[in-house]
Amino acid sequence: MPLKTLREKLKDNYESLALLEAIDAFDQIRSLVVETSEEYPCQAKEALLGLYQLIRTIIQEGHLERTDKEQLWRHLTILEEDLYRVATRAEAILDTVYKVQGLLSDVEDIPEQ
Asked: Is residue 93 classed as helix, strand or coil in its secondary structure?
């Protein structure tokens, strides 16, 4: 059975909407990380810095105050939420990349100009 050409594979299997959705997901990641929105501001950097400071306190002083423990958990929760939003969108982009890679495998020709 002859191998399909790249054009045939793309025509039969590729949905351009998936790539547009990947572009949208990338824009969402950028807005989460770079551009802060009022509704969902990304606080990951501040939370990482706060976590660093609290861990340094534990190392230097050997203990934390009750308010420090609450702040520690607050930083961890913020990181989990922000990074989950980034990761789910990055995963959607990777799914699209993997689909296109799969279409490129076993093609008979890749046209050049």
From this structure: helix
User: What SS3 state is found at 66?
Assistant: helix
User: Which band of pLDDT confidence, cut at 50, 70 and 90, is reported for residue 1?
Assistant: very low
Neighbours of 43 (CB within 10 A): 16
Which of 73, 32, 81 lies closest to 51 in space, CA to CA?
Answer: 73
Distances (CA, A) of 86 to 18, 22, 90, 94: 18, 13, 6, 12
Q: What is the pLDDT of residues 32-74, one digit of tens each?
A: 777 656 666 678 888 999 999 988 888 888 877 888 889 999 9
Domain-by-domain residue ranges, the chain? 6-103
Rounded Cα distance, 7 and 11, in Å: 6
Q: Give all strands (DSSP E) within the chain, no chain letters.
A: none
- First vs last Cα of the chain: how many Å apart? 27
Q: Report whether 93 contacts 22 (CB < 8 A).
A: yes
pTM for the predicted model, two decimal places: 0.67
